[in-house]
Amino acid sequence: MRTLEKGKLLVASHNQGKIKEMIDLLGPFGFEVVSAGDLGLPEPDETGMTFEQNAYIKAFAAAKATGLVALSDDSGLCVDALGGDPGVYTANWAELPGGKRDFAFGMQKVEKALQDKGAIRPKDRSGRFVSVICLAWPDGEANYYRGEVEGEIVWPPRGTAGFGYDPVFKPEGYDATFGEMTAEQKHGWKPGDTDALSHRARAFQHFARDCLDAG
Ligand code: IMP
């Protein structure tokens, strides 16, 4: 596994919600963080069939364009009653005709698909958020880290915190949705802490233990 030197680290994302969470998670490690959005890099097409493939597409495109080591996240919501959908297409499910993303629309689409399946009882509405973090070097080498959090899809949406599908996801063992949690409750994690909660924080925890020598 290739090790990571301290210095400038490029977060290969244009999604402000994800960038904020990655900056929070990278905070204790003393990197100089820049994002692909800040540098005006183009957003590559996510043509992969898996979270790993799409995470690599994003991280490698950014690393190659800048010569910096790049960290990406590809993530999504996988609902059991929908055969794992929307999965890698989670962002696409929120696209309005014309291409603009509206996550209220995406959440409604998931709810309609669940209703069409007759998935009304909480036990029929299980799913998980998945995050794959990819660390890619300009020469094409890459490391991967996966995090998942089990939960249930609730309706109507609850809470205004976070981003994307947070208001309809209630993690197992909690009464609140991600949309009702503080940033600290959802993705807070630093070296020495016990397990993180969110999929992204769990993937990050693997990355930090492997590459940053964090406990
Ligand atoms: P992608 O990784 O760019 O393909 O986008 C994944 C999509 O999944 C995002 O646009 C969000 O809508 C959704 N998503 C991923 N992680 C989260 C999360 O932590 N909370 C809410 N929605 C998320």
TrEMBL record:
Keywords: Hydrolase, Magnesium, Metal-binding, Nucleotide metabolism, Nucleotide-binding. It catalyses: XTP + H2O = XMP + diphosphate + H(+); dITP + H2O = dIMP + diphosphate + H(+); ITP + H2O = IMP + diphosphate + H(+). The active site is at 74 (proton acceptor). SUPFAM superfamilies: ITPase-like (SSF52972). GO terms for biological process: nucleotide metabolic process; purine nucleoside triphosphate catabolic process. GO terms for cellular component: cytosol. Its EC number is 3.6.1.66. Substrate binds at residues 13-18, 75, 163-166, 186, 199-200. It is an enzyme of class 3 (hydrolase). Mg(2+) binds at residues 45, 74. GO terms for molecular function: dITP diphosphatase activity; ITP diphosphatase activity; metal ion binding; nucleotide binding; ribonucleoside triphosphate phosphatase activity; XTP diphosphatase activity. Homodimer. Belongs to the HAM1 NTPase family. Pyrophosphatase that catalyzes the hydrolysis of nucleoside triphosphates to their monophosphate derivatives, with a high preference for the non-canonical purine nucleotides XTP (xanthosine triphosphate), dITP (deoxyinosine triphosphate) and ITP. Seems to function as a house-cleaning enzyme that removes non-canonical purine nucleotides from the nucleotide pool, thus preventing their incorporation into DNA/RNA and avoiding chromosomal lesions. NCBIfam families: RdgB/HAM1 family non-canonical purine NTP pyrophosphatase. This is dITP/XTP pyrophosphatase. The lineage of its organism: Bacteria, Pseudomonadati, Pseudomonadota, Alphaproteobacteria, Hyphomicrobiales.
